[in-house]
Amino acid sequence: MRILLTGAAGFLGSHLTDRLLREGYTVIGMDNFITGNQGNLAHLEKNPNFNLICHDVSNFISVNGQIDYVVHFASPASPNPASPLGYPNLPIQTLKAGALGTHNALGVARAYQAKFLLASTSEIYGDPLEHPQKETYRGNVDPVGTRSVYDEAKRFAEALTMAYHRFHKIDTHIVRIFNTYGPRMRIDDGRVIPNFLLQALRGEPITIFGDGSQTRSFCYVDDLIEGIYLLMLSDYHAPVNIGNPAEISICELANQINQLTENKAGTVTLIEKRLSTDPQRRKPDISLAKSVLGWEPKTSLENGLLETIRYFQG
Ligand code: NAD
Ligand code: UDP
Question: Whose CA is nearest to atom 19 of ligand 2?
């Protein structure tokens, strides 16, 4: 079975590549390295079952030979405008990866009658008014807000995926990924866990955007990949939340990271919010993943953070 995986050089794409190769699939990775890192795949250079193609998925995708599954992960993913890798600094590329990239990836799936999985996001729910978020919640997204280039691209990508499923009868799947962390995140991509670890490992105070009362629910990468793999094999077509429901405030996260890294500064600094549209609360309802996939996360935040700290310490 040959799988085309877009965004393969990224944090999640590289972990999924490893998992698929371990399961015996052949993987064709596709990436333009806009936010990814080729080093994430360096260990696969001599693997005969892996091939890496440098290509922007917003342009027509052409691959040689049969494809049995298309997995579409290519998209910038960090909301931090202070990082050049954040989608506020890649607005057009982000809209194109979600819209044109999804269209091209679905086109490949249709041409080969291959299965398809879309990496969607909890950002579909925007700044949610329902808590925790179930898949049936339709979201609270500002279509012209500072996060809209990402949120609306992913919402369009979900709609397009369902159109290919309903109209072209493609066997599609949609995973709504909640905040995930772990080894191979880029230390400079601006997301909260790498940012906090960078500061803590340098012995600096951690900077919190806003008052730190906003919450997130962090999933360790191995748990997420297991859930995605089960969804790929399932016959479930509607979107499924995959994330860890253990909710924590950003202030508590900063304190835990200061403690685990034994940060000498040991303090936090509150600065102005970077994005006015920063969601105040986020926590997945994972009852659907439990019932359809028999999946739930296993890694505690403390153990996952310790693994991630080891990675960043090299
Ligand atoms: P990442 O930035 O590490 O990986 C994204 C990869 O896609 C990078 O390698 C990048 O170079 C590539 N890419 C971007 N635009 C491209 C294009 N036009 N053509 C080819 N390649 C392109 O981010 P990640 O955290 O691994 O995210 C992967 C996917 O999962 C994204 O679709 C993201 O929206 C989704 N997601 C991630 C999270 C999370 O917490 N990590 C949460 C929700 C959704
Ligand atoms: N955040 C922060 N300091 C940082 C980076 C992020 O306080 O250095 C906050 C951010 O404002 C948000 C939360 O941490 O409330 C999670 O941010 P992240 O960029 O990881 O992604 P999001 O969940 O907002 O998509």
Answer: 191
**pLDDT tens digit sequence for 61-70:** 999 999 999 9
User: Catalytic residue among 25, 87, 150, 229, which?
Assistant: 150
* pTM higher than the cut 0.70: yes
Exposure letters 160-195 (e unless 16+ CB within 10 A, then b): bbbebbeeeebebbbbbbbbbbbbbbbeebbbbbbb
Question: Distances from the Cα of 10 to the Cαs of 15, 72, 170, 220, 250, in angstroms?
Answer: 8, 12, 26, 16, 24
CA of 261 to the centre of ligand 1 (A): 27
Residue 34 in contact with ligand 1 by CB distance below 6 A = yes
CB 224 within 8 A of CB 180: yes
Tell me yes or no: is domain 2-182+219-245+283-298 CATH 2.30.42.10: no
Beta bridge partners of 120: 176
Mean pLDDT along residues 237-259: 98
Length reported for the chain: 314
- Whether the bond between 132 and the residue before it is cis, its omega within 30 degrees of 0, is yes
- Give the span between the Cα atoms of 94 and 106, in whole angstroms: 17
Q: What is the pLDDT of residues 90-135, one digit of tens each?
A: 999 999 999 999 999 999 999 999 999 999 999 999 999 999 999 9
